[in-house]
From TrEMBL:
Family assignment from sequence similarity: Belongs to the TrhO family.
Keywords on record: Oxidoreductase, tRNA processing
Record-linked InterPro entries: Rhodanese-like_dom, Rhodanese-like_dom_sf, TrhO, TRHO_N
HAMAP family referenced in this protein's UniProt entry, alphabetically: TrhO
Pfam families: Rhodanese (PF00581), UPF0176_N (PF17773)
Domain Rhodanese stretches: 126-220
Listed PROSITE patterns: RHODANESE_3
Source species, domain of life: Bacteria
Protein name: tRNA uridine(34) hydroxylase
Reactions this protein catalyses: uridine(34) in tRNA + AH2 + O2 = 5-hydroxyuridine(34) in tRNA + A + H2O
Source organism per UniProt: Bradyrhizobium algeriense
Signal peptide boundaries: none
SUPFAM superfamilies: Rhodanese/Cell cycle control phosphatase (SSF52821)
Amino acid sequence: MPFKVAALYQFAALPDFRELREPLRALAAGLGIKGSVLLAHEGINGTVAGGDEGIDAFVRELQHGPLFAGRLDNLELKFSSATEMPFQRLKIRPKKEIVTLGDTTADPRRQVGTYVEPSDWNELIAAPDTLVIDTRNAFEVAMGTFEGAVDPGIKSFGQFKEFAAEKLDPAKHKRIAMFCTGGIRCEKASAYLLALGFGEVYHLKGGILRYLEGVPEQESRWRGECFVFDERVALGHGLRQRRPNDGSHE
């Protein structure tokens, strides 16, 4: 039986995030779930895998259970499958940030760019006055990206600040559209650019994974594959898993 994989995040106030670690670990372990979840004062971010019932129960607890007491009622979720368990173990880790930028002015809980649904993304990035930016690391971009997107050439997301300082100008770049794997990095990047004074800042809701899940391949402006941080390595349209060693899809 295939495993169900859930990629999830939400920016939310979790001042008690350190106290949440052990009960969340116990919940996931009891449901037979493996994967990685980050907890910080600003929210939750993770990818986990398990059986259908286990993943569904885990998600229900996050969204509606007493552990988070309704604070994750707007959880961004994407589901896919894996032919084998894509994680070796379960890790629940407290962090300073759920996605590391290292700048307190970037707070999506205060302000964030305009979300763009996958069905509207092609029209936005085709407009000649839109600067499209891939906010992922260079090795991820090398595996696949959208047509015409700028590669910042960064090794880690924290370097996005240097890229913005050197290459972006609010007076010149009037409309910016950003994307990333699941939505979390470009959501934080959009908050950062707004704090710097950029006017029109957009980002792909649900990220590349949501786009590949919902947009028909014949209409897609995506080229290549989407790197994922587990043993599946990369996914294609329909979130199909690449077969090891031969580059094809399941």
